[in-house]
Amino acid sequence: MRFPCRILPPLGTLRAFEAAARLENFTVAADELCLTQSAVSRHVRSLEESLGARLFDRQNRSVRLTPDGRRLMEAVAVSLSHLSIVTQDIRQRRDSGKITVGMLTSQASLYVIPRMSQFRRHFPEIDINIVSMERNPNPLIDDFDVSIVAGYHPDPGFYSEKVLTEMAYPVCSAEYLTDRPTMNEPADLADATLLHLDEAAFVGYPWQTSVNWASFLSSFGFELPQPKHGLTFSSYMMTVQAALRGLGVAIGWHHIVADFIKEGSLVRPIKIEQTWDRHHYLVVPKNRLERTDVTEFCSWLRTELKGTMELRP
After folding, report:
1. I want to staple 65 with a disulfide (CB 3.0 to 4.6 A). Which of 69, 92, 232, 285 is the partner?
2. Angle at 252 between CA 248 and CA 257, to 5 degrees
3. Digit-coded pLDDT (tens) for 257-283
């Protein structure tokens, strides 16, 4: 498979920019990178010229990021961190016996991590490096031992199996329902504080349309009043946390919120649900299928997900 040519700034300019942005000082950044202050300045100036945008506001003894600089810093910091993790893993994998698993941040934080103590009790000899991502993992470029991928397209070099089918329903805390009218039908949600996930969170996913309150409620014949009201968050993990704190009603993805409903932290204010023909896949490079740590982890995760999907709170 051929990938399109990527037009990227030189790595040296990005490293200088990241250090200067993180430390808010060109001189301190130069010391960290073993460069001169003028070299860091040249790298940053070259980067600004190539982008046609100012990245820093220069002050007497420090620098501050411009809005464009903050956007670039977020992307560079995530990219360099991920690059560091992957390269270290490649160097250490055979000696350390560590398995690297890539998945969405919401799946890692709200589903896998709460279960890791159970896995460690059964397999104390297996070390795991969990890489959480705001974007959909891409097995072709991420080089994980195991990935959970939304809408995976099969590739000859990888083994894949469907482990999740997307199902969702409204959820909120019991506290939120206190002194509020009982909800009996979708139209009753029009008077609730709805918790929205920013549409930008769906960029890069294989689905043609995102699942938001408008599309969810339209499947039940109810049109959400415009403009939409409520609170909007940039990540699904934040949306769930807001629901747990009693801030409103969220769309709860079953495989993420089932545990919270089982323990009583979240409730279903209205018994409606929707299932989509959208699947998540367990993906493993074929040359790692024989590794014991990989097969043990996949078997454990497969069993956990099967139990969750069969749970109907």
Report:
1. 69
2. 105
3. 999 999 999 999 998 998 888 889 999
